[in-house]
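user: Please review this fold.
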Amino acid sequence: MTDEKDLSNDSPVTTRRGIRSFVLRQGRMTEGQKKAYERSWPIYGLTREQGMVDPRQVFGRDAVLNLEIGFGMGKSLADMAEAAPEQDFIGVEVHLPGVGALLKEVEDRGLENVRVYSIDANDVIDLCLPDACLDRVMVFFPDPWHKKRHHKRRLIQHDFVQRIRHKLRVGGILHLATDWENYAEHMMEVMNEAEGFANAAGAGQYSPRPDDRPMTKFERRGERLGHSVWDLLFHRTN
């Protein structure tokens, strides 16, 4: 999320799908994050090497399944999981301090409904999750890549959205949020043209922030300063 990531290094890293939408930033785990990672990764961590998973086996039940891509330091994901213990949550984050921070939240709150990938979200989508397994996909405050020449690195693109669609159940929700107006406009353009999606708020409309999307400290501070946040909620229709 924008308030939780160090943007000091903007060197792109290539992957099997081309240029990534994120950069591998420097940063060390705190001692608490490191210990939580060592204790809890074997319990809550998921890997590419496991291949295609069955979420019912992963969580030991059949429940509403949410995927958050790029959870930052994990507090919002932990808040959502704690508020909805009847639902299950998979988080994806490449930065290890964030993974450690989420696992510490999981330990401190005694959460059993969270699992974590620490790999490229593209690999999670392509290699790890079966089609039509997700009820909701959340991408909150992804890197905006605000310079025009960097727009191609933005995560929300036509191909990515279609690959997400196949992982959602019909009726499932893709929930996007950004605090960059130009990125909000880009997201809306992509989603308006996306096959198999319908805008929950009506054509071309942004949605009010749903109560179940936690508001970050950064967002509250921005709100006091008059900054805006744009939420987009789209349902899979077919």
